[in-house]
Amino acid sequence: MRARELYPGVYEIDILHATDDELMEISESMGLALSMEEMRRLKDFFASLGRNPTDVEIHAIAQGWSEHCSYKSSKKVLRKYIFGIPSKHALIVMQDDAGVVEFDENHAYVFKIESHNHPSAVEPYGGAATGVGGIIRDILNMGAKPIALVDPLFFAPPDYPYEKLNPGIKHPRYLLNGVVAGIRDYGNRVGIPTVAGMTYFHEGFVNNILVNAGCLGIVRKDKIVRSRVDKPSLLLVMVGGRTGRDGIHGVNFASRILGEKSEEERQAVQLGNPILKEPLIHVILEANEMGIIKGMKDLGGGGLGSVVGEMCYSGGVTAEIYLDKVPLKEEGMAPWEIWVSESQERMLLAMEEKDLDRLREICEKWDVEMSMIGKTKEGENLELYWHGKKVLDLPLKFVTAGVEYERPYKIKKVEKMQELPVEPNYREIFLRLLSSFNIGSKEWIIRQYDHEVQGRTVIKPLQGVIGYESHGDAAIIKPLYDSWKGIAITTVANPQLGEIDPYKAALYTVDEAVRNLVSVGARPHSFSDCLNFGNPEKEEIMGEFVESCRGLGEAARFLGIPYVSGNVSFYNEAFGKNIPPTAVLMAVGIIDDIRYAVTSDFKEEGNPIYLVGETKEEMGGSEYYRLIGAKSTTVPEVDLEELRKRSEELLKAMKKGVIRACHDISQGGLAIAAAEMCLGGNIGAELDLAPLGFMRADFKLFSESATRWLCEVQRGKEKEFESIVKARKIGVVSGNTLRVRDDSRWLFNVHLNIMRERWRAALRDYVG
Amino acid sequence: MWGEIMKVAVLQIEGTNCEEESYAAFKHFNQDVEYVHLNLVKRGKKRLEDYDILFIPGGFSAGDYVRAGSIFAARLKAIAWKELKKFVEDENKRIIGVCNGFQILIELGLLPGVDGISEVPEAALMVNDSNRFECRWVYLRKERDTSFSKEVPELIALPVAHAEGKFFTTSKILEEIEENRQVVFRYVSPSGGKAEYPWNPNGSLNDIAALVNSYGNVMGIMPHPERAFHWYQHPDWTRKKREVGDGYYIFKSLLHHK
Question: Across the strands, what pairs with A322?
Answer without folding.
Answer: A385
